[in-house]
Q: What sequence folds into this?
């Protein structure tokens, strides 16, 4: 399975890097492919390292202005012209999507993938990996949107909230019929 992971390229502390590394190892050991932003810095590097060291494949999709941070040794690397093209390429190459901790870029990617799913543009499983409660506030906001009628389909059909990588991967494999 090609698993697209949206996440930060920032250097983060152990409460985020350790669970990210554990999840990456699960992806690699499961024989899956990581589809990610192609960067070799911060949390993106941690996840790519973990997947590759555990035997998984790496498919990176970077963007022109970040090409200096691209990871050498990926199985495949695409360099898009701009962020919109990058997001479209990441989504097109994915069978499933996991949203990990991140900043405004990750939030942008998360809302776009959910908006596309809401409108039926794709039916890929989407997991919001809530490491260390990072997305508790967003989870609460999504529940409110659901309860107050802002979502045309149930929240549970839109996104799965996982508290750890084991639950995230189990959901993705079950959704894809791998388990």
A:
């Amino acid at each position: 399975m090609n698993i697209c992971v949206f996440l930060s390229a920032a250097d983060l502390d152990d409460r985020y890097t350790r669970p990210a590394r554990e999840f990456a190892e699960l992806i690699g050991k499961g024989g899956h492919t990581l589809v990610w932003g192609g960067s070799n810095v911060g949390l993106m590097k941690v996840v790519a390292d973990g997947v590759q060291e555990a035997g998984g494949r790496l498919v990176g999709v970077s963007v022109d202005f970040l090409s200096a941070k691209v990871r050498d040794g990926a199985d495949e690397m695409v360099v898009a012209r701009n962020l919109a093209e990058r997001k479209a390429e990441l989504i097109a190459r994915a069978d499933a999507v996991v949203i990990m901790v991140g900043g405004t870029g990750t939030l942008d990617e998360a809302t776009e993938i959910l908006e596309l799913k809401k409108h039926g543009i794709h039916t890929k499983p989407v997991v919001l990996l809530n490491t260390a409660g990072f997305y508790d506030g967003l989870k609460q906001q999504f529940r409110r949107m659901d309860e107050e009628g802002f979502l045309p389909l149930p929240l549970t059909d839109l996104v799965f909230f996982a508290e750890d990588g084991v639950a995230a991967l189990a959901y993705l494999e079950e959704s894809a019929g791998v388990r």
Remarks:
- The helical segments are 14-29, 42-53, 83-93, 104-118, 136-147, 155-158, 165-175.
- The mean pLDDT is 94.
- The longest helix spans residues 14-29.
